[in-house]
Amino acid sequence: MRIEYDRDTCIGMFQCVAEWDAFSKDEDAGKAVLAESEERDEDVFVREIPEDEELDAKFAARVCPVDAIRVYDDDGEQVV
C-alpha cells in the first residue's frame, strides 16, 4: 500500500498529524510534511505504508479537509 500527499493542496489544518505520526507540522510553511517520502511530481510526495500503519494512514487521508492525501492498494487502486 502507498500514500500520496499533495503538499500544494494542503491548507495546514494538521488533522493528518493527529492520525498518523508519519505526518508532522511545518508551521513556518503552514503545511504538513510526510516523513520518509519521495517527491514524485512537483509538490506530490509518495511513500510506502508499513502494514502495521495502514489503518492510521487511511484515517489521515479521510480526515484531510481538502483531499490532499490519497491511499492506494498494491494494485494501484485508490482506496481512500
From TrEMBL:
Cross-referenced InterPro entries: Fe-S_cluster_ET (IPR051269)
SUPFAM superfamilies according to UniProt: 4Fe-4S ferredoxins
Keywords of this entry: Electron transport, Iron, Iron-sulfur, Metal-binding, Transport
- Organism domain of life: Archaea
Write down the Pfam families for this protein, in alphabetical order. Answer: Fer4_15 (PF13459)
Give an example GO molecular function: metal ion binding
UniProt-listed PANTHER family: FERREDOXIN
Q: What is this protein called?
A: Ferredoxin
Q: Which organism is it from?
A: Halomarina salina
